[in-house]
Specification:
Number of helices: 5
Largest sheet: none
Oligomer: single chain
Shape: globular
Helix content: over 70%
Strand content: under 5%
Structural class: mainly alpha
Order of helices and strands: HHHHH
Distance between the termini: 34 Å
Length: 153
């Protein structure tokens, strides 16, 4: 199978994962966040650090950001493999990241106890941008080291 189709499949499955998290009713989602909060606070206590500031709300927002940072990384790889012009690639990248966040929050409007929030669309979009920038930085460092290794030969 061609590389570009594998990337599309990976991104598609990841978007389904994001949407499946949004389809969880509030109680289930809260329990998931609560378990993660407990684990992280236990880690803080183990290292004798104060984790009083860490709340379920903070965990949820960090989760949004992290989830969408990964999406930004995947979109970078996927759209880079499609053979598009740079202008189209970045347009599709930005539009895809925003639309996934928009639909994700819209899904939550129809789930018991959940609410879609425009602030989360912006947080998610910022996560996409962050993941993209991190991946671009790694890619540029890799390319630069590759060029330097060729020059040494």
């Amino acid at each position: 199978m061609k590389r570009k189709y594998i990337w599309i499949l990976i991104v598609g499955l990841y978007v389904l994962f994001i949407f499946s998290n949004s389809m969880k009713i509030a109680d289930t989602s809260s329990k998931d966040s609560g378990r993660l909060l407990y684990l992280i606070q236990s880690g803080f206590r183990y290292f004798e650090l104060s984790g009083y500031w860490l709340t379920e709300h903070v965990i949820r927002k960090m989760g949004h950001f992290a989830e969408y940072s990964i999406l930004g990384m995947l979109l970078f790889g996927c759209l880079g493999a499609q053979g598009l012009s740079e202008e189209k690639r970045w347009t599709y990248h930005a539009a895809s990241g925003f639309l996934v966040a928009f639909f994700d929050e819209t899904i939550q409007l129809f789930v018991e106890g959940r609410s879609g929030q425009i602030s989360d669309v912006w947080l998610d979009s910022a996560g996409v941008a962050f993941g993209t920038l991190v991946t671009m930085g790694i890619y540029l460092i890799y390319k630069r080291s590759e060029i330097l290794n060729v020059k040494k030969l």
